[in-house]
Amino acid sequence: MINDKILYELEDNFGDWWQKGYATPQMTNNLYPYTSMFSPIQVNKLTIKNRLVMGPMGNIDMAEETGRPSQKMISYFAERARGGVGLITSGLIPVSYGIDSTVKEVGDLSYFPRIDRTRTVFSGWREVAAGVHAHGAHFFIQLTAGLGRVGNPQCLLTQFKLPVSASWNPNFYIPQIPCKRLSGRKLNKLIKNFGQAAADAKACTIDGVYLHGHEGYLLEQLTNPAFNRRVMGRFSDWQRFGIDVVKQIRKRVGNNYPIMYRIDLSLALNATYQDKMSQKPLKKFRNERTIQQTLEYMVNLVRAGVDMFDVDLGCYDNWWLPHPPASMPSGCFLEISKIVKDYFRANNITSNAGKPVPIVAVGKLGYPDLAEQALRDEKCDMIMLARPLLADPEWPNKAMAGECDKIRPCIGCHEGCIREFVEGGHPQCAVNPRTAFEEVFSRELPKSNEPQHIAVIGAGPAGIVSAKCLLERGHKVDLYEATDHIGGTLIPAGVPTFKYEIKNYVTYLNGVVDEMKKNSNFTLKLNRRADTPYLKDKYDSVVVATGSKIVIPNIAGADKNHVITVTEALQNPEIVKKAKEIVILGGGDSGCEAAYWAAIELGKKVTIIEQKATLMTDSCTANRGHILHYLDKANVTTHNLSTLSEIKDSSVVINKNVHSSVPNPYNTWQPILPENITNPLAPKIQTKIQSVEIPADLVIVAVGTRAQNELYFDLVKQNAVKHVYQVGDAFRPGKVFIAVKGAYRRCRDI
After folding, report:
1. d(C-alpha 415, C-alpha 737), whole Å
2. H/E run at residue 715
3. Residues 211 and 321 placed together within one structural domain of the fold
4. Which of 473, 608, 616, 692 is the most exposed, fewest CB within 10 Å of its CB?
5. Would you say residue 365 lies in a domain?
6. Are residues 222 and 115 in the same domain?
7. Domain count, the chain
8. H/E element, 44
9. Which of 422, 443, 475 is at the close of a domain?
């Protein structure tokens, strides 16, 4: 019997993981040649050329409104197949239209790609498969029962229908809205839909089906006692629905067609929230599957016809687990995949084809040495790469060639891949502006018909991307940087240990610049501040990428010596190390990450002051959840709905809303609704202001930034050069995702 104790150990480790034995990997090739990673593997009757799997990422907005895959999706998957991955999986494809009202849009339009329709969608899937097969890879389609309680409750307004679930469960986004218990008749219909969709997939030359049974989506809601609290009928056995689905698929596709299942070994809710499980709506979900129950369920799924699994932890209510953000350790779930692999091996579990059941590891494995070592240590049989293949589709080819230093690393920001998905877009990437635009932007930039001499001012990510694009276009480029190094604000941002992926990205950018230096048309000018008189009449065009700077609020005492910006704090960590009581002004991404660094890495007493009701409002849910969860565990005090009124020599004075209706800033089991959504059922926040004085020998300001655009406007005003452009934070302060995308799109047309 396997105990769930490991879940509590992992949960405890994931806060200060760098002190608990987890490495901060780099793009090294110490284990090259990667003989394990690039060996073939058999799944049922299918031979896959290597051990690399492209993980599922939502392919919404990659299909026509009928659900037919568009050229965007075809090109997107073909690009990853060309990059050398062995197996590609699609994003989730519902089979529950007419049953799960959350997957249907107003006007009977499809938010997701579909295969459960008619032949009108089949040609698109055949083209997807053909594009993947052309490069020697295989393609599995991920089928989902639907969203259930984690779906958008707008269906209540647009269709006058409640969301659905296994039992009467609260909706994730608006828990005041209940999700209706699905009837046995509709569940049987869903089972038949799975079988038909699988048969259609096989007819479309898709190589296998992949069942989406994790993360608290509808299939898991039906197969986990946390959500399935039915006491009568066939499906009161929480295993039954999943087993019946697999049997139906196997009946329709035959014995030789691969079936893959995605599952979490545990929701890990009890391990995550512990005594908080008595709070709404968590208390409904206390009876989650144990590890032992999950393993037994997986064995029954194999007997029903499943050929392989990928396995992780978590659900929407602790979203940083199934979507490990930048602040999580790499290889975070290798011990989870090892539990399953060891269990199957010890119990001699084989598939219906008489083959061992491959176990696919997931969780920030985008480093070749890390992935190879996991395979050699037999912690898994295959490696799933999701976001790393958005960042660099050529990851497999570069790893196979031993050119690991040329791999463009994922930075774990979730801005392009997940946030775009949540907000209705398709997968994109902060560091790869071509991701999901392969059908629009060619791999090679077209040469300019009129080569120019161009100055790029600022060597942050936007400036470097601009310079690279312009150079590839055939222009002569001078890249100016006021400091002695490239990277811009990425340098201080990468100071905390948990921001190791930012450091890796800076290393990659240095490699990009080193390659550009080999071109006689490129010059890097460090320690050079280029102003208007210097640039005037010297260049045909100037691209201004001067970034942004932190705003210092106009508050009494803001000019005191112990008041510094968050950038200054990161650039001068010795100042922070000397402090005893730190107040951070601003609970956005920068402020909370600085608090995480100061409290957890440096062991300081930290207080956050935030004007809004919630913290990190501009961050993806997973990133936000992880940081806030461990700030809470580190006893970082947060005063939300509070304003700073005065900074004294050894304290600060705030005006704080102390009313009992003020929400808990550390509630990470409920999301922040988008600004364009109003929850009329949310409790109203009332006001009771009280003046509070807080000890502070260091005040760190992280209240926002403004564009450093003075150079741009001065160049325009003086008519200094023929063309002047703004990119990155110099245009509008934002994140790497916005800066890189904007710079690439602007400069590929100059």
Report:
1. 6
2. helix 710-717
3. yes
4. 692
5. yes
6. yes
7. 3
8. none
9. 422
User: Please, are residues 373 and 353 in contact by the beta-carbon 8 Å criterion?
Assistant: no
| Pairing of the two strands 178-181 and 169-170 | antiparallel
- 477 plus 597 within the same structural domain: no
Same domain for 409 and 474, yes or no, is no
Q: How many residues does the chain have?
A: 750
- The answer to whether 139 and 82 have CB atoms below 8 angstroms apart is no
Ramachandran region, residue 232 (left: φ > 0; alpha: ψ -120 to 50; beta: rest): beta
Which among 382, 403, 422 is the end of a domain?
A: 422
* Region 556-564 average pLDDT: 94
Per DSSP, the three-state class of 137 is: coil
In a domain, 555, yes or no: no
* Owning domain of residue 631: 563-667+683-703
Q: pLDDT tens digit string along 436-478?
A: 999 999 999 999 999 999 999 999 999 999 999 999 999 999 9
Quick check: is 444 in a domain?
no
Helix/strand/coil for 109: strand
CA angle 712, 717, 718 (to 5 degrees): 100
- CATH of residue 389: 3.20.20.70
Instruction: Match 């957890």 to its residue by tokens.
Output: 600
Q: Give Cα separations from 675 to 207, 423, 672, 678, 681 (angstroms).
A: 41, 11, 9, 8, 16
Specify whether 501 is located in the same domain as 636.
no
In this structure, are 187 and 251 located in the same domain?
yes
Same domain, 530 and 586: no
Quote the tokens at residue 567: 């950038």
Tokens of 403: 């050119």
Instruction: Kindly state whether residue 122 falls inside one of the protein's structural domains.
Output: yes
Helix spans in 33-176 (H):
71-82, 122-133, 155-158
Q: Is the peptide bond before 33 cis (omega within 30 degrees of 0)?
A: yes
E-strand ranges in 590-660 read 605-609, 637-639, 642-647, 651-657
Of residues 117, 142, 146, the one with CA closest to residue 217: 146
| Phi and psi angles of residue 78, each rounded to the nearest 5 degrees, phi first | -60, -40
Tokens representing residue 624 in the block: 């936000």
Helix 5-13 crosses helix 334-346 at what angle (to 10 degrees)?
Answer: 160
As given in the structure block, the two tokens for residue 387 are 């976001």
Question: Do 607 and 477 have their domain in common?
Answer: no
Q: What is the pLDDT of residues 624-659, one digit of tens each?
A: 999 999 999 999 999 999 999 999 999 999 999 999
For 622: left if phi > 0, alpha if psi spans -120 to 50, otherwise beta; the answer is alpha
The answer, yes or no, to whether residue 165 has pLDDT greater than 80, is yes
721 within 8 A of 539, measured Cβ to Cβ: yes
Residue 101, Cβ neighbours under 10 Å: how many? Answer: 24
